[in-house]
């Protein structure tokens, strides 16, 4: 036991108190407060907004381009039977238009973020949350638009928009086996509608809905400590899943108005969920660790980063349960304890002569 003591002690290095204090000061100065002026704000975040504008322009530009793939599709068998009736649904208006879907996916999470400020009262948190929401929505939009342009697919109402100039008597003049495969050259409909009908996968509605509403659920969990160190009231769990239910309803409505197949919606939902998860973790110190998932990460002084062992937080959560209040804002004992917890344990071992 005595032989191992020097190696154990050697592994422990006393933290640099001056460096920690300097970091605390830098971190406090770095967080956005009421005293931050417009010049400092723009100096800090101008590149983020520039990238948002660039990505938005790319998304809008790609959205009006002709789809890249030359899709082949059968229309009739030789006996006159329609090969794929799942592409023959009538063309009609969306239950929820694309513009309204994007607006809802932004406005409703914003409302929750601003309502939470009644308790949190932090411009830093509001700015971090809303920027993260914008990152999630704009990244998801560009992601799905590029996939639609390069991959795409036939929408359920494709034949109604295409209006193919082909009859069973003409079968055999196309490509593939028995010449039953044709491309868009047989279409006589409006070119813009045909382009749209060839861009089915993934669902943009589903991507936007999950990118916005799942991000909202993550935010509510971080602020209300729904999955934390105590058992909250049931309404908090319902509130956590309500935005996800909204995303599912918006996405699933596309099967009713025949704008997407179920697999288009599934892929869009996966993309939106993936990007919402990344956007929230990009902005906040954690997603599921209840001790830190309400804390905005620093942008100024990022070379130092956020010290997960700091004993005081500059942004409080929205919950007063489980020890979360203004006087006790550090919670210990969860899995994956942070660095300072390990320092405390190591210090106690050394002090005890282990």
Summarize the structure in words.
Pfam families: PAP2. GO terms for molecular function: phosphatidate phosphatase activity. Keywords: Membrane, Transmembrane, Transmembrane helix. By secondary structure, this protein is mainly α. It has one domain. 53% of the residues lie in helices and 1% in strands. The chain has a two-stranded antiparallel ribbon with strand order 1-2. Helix 8 packs antiparallel against helix 9 and helix 8 packs parallel to helix 10. The longest helix is centred in the middle third of the chain and has 28 residues.
Instruction: Note poorly predicted spans.
Output: 1-15, 29-34, 345-354
Shape: elongated
Query: Could you give a short account of the major beta sheet?
Result: 2 strands, antiparallel
How are helices and strands ordered from N to C? HHHEHHHEHHHHH
| Count of distinct structural domains | 1
What structural class do the secondary elements suggest?
mainly alpha
Our Rg estimate from Cα atoms comes to: 27 Å
Main sheet: which strands, in order across? 1-2
Counting H and I runs of at least 4 residues, what is the number of helices? 11
Distance between the termini: 8 Å
Mean pLDDT across all amino acids: 81
Oligomer: single chain
Please indicate the percent range of residues in DSSP E strands (runs of 2 or more): under 5%
Question: What is the number of E strands?
Answer: 2
- The percent range for helix content is 40-55%
């Amino acid at each position: 036991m005595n032989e191992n003591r020097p190696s154990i002690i050697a592994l422990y290095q006393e933290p640099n108190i001056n460096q920690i204090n300097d970091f605390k000061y830098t971190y406090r100065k770095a967080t956005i407060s009421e005293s931050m002026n417009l010049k400092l704000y723009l100096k800090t975040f101008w590149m983020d907004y520039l990238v948002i504008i660039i990505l938005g322009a790319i998304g809008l530009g790609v959205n009006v381009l002709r789809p890249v793939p030359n899709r082949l599709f059968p229309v009739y068998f030789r006996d006159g039977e329609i090969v794929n009736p799942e592409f023959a649904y009538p063309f009609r208006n969306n239950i929820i238009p694309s513009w309204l879907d994007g607006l809802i996916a932004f406005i409703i999470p914003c409302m929750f973020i601003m309502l939470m400020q009644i308790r949190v009262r932090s411009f830093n948190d509001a700015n971090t949350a809303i920027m993260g929401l914008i990152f999630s929505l704009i990244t998801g939009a560009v992601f799905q638009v590029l996939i639609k342009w390069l991959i795409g697919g036939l929408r359920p109402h494709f034949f109604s928009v295409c209006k193919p100039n082909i009859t069973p008597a003409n079968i055999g003049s196309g490509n593939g086996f028995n010449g039953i495969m044709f491309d868009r050259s047989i279409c006589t409909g409006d070119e813009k509608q045909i382009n749209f009908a060839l861009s089915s996968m993934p669902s943009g509605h589903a991507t936007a809905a999950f990118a916005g509403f799942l991000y909202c659920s993550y935010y509510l969990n971080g602020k209300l400590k729904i999955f934390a160190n105590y058992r909250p009231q049931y309404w908090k769990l319902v509130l956590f899943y309500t935005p996800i239910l909204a995303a599912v309803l918006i996405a699933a409505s596309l099967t009713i108005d025949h704008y997407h197949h179920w697999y288009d919606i599934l892929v869009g939902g996966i993309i939106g969920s993936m990007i919402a998860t990344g956007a929230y973790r990009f902005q906040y110190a954690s997603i599921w660790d209840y001790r830190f998932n309400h804390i905005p990460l620093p942008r100024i002084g990022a070379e130092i980063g956020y010290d997960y062992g700091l004993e005081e937080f500059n942004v409080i959560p929205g919950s007063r349960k489980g020890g979360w209040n203004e006087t006790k804002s550090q919670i210990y004992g969860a899995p994956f304890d942070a660095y300072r917890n390990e320092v405390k344990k190591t210090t106690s071992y050394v002090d005890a002569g282990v």
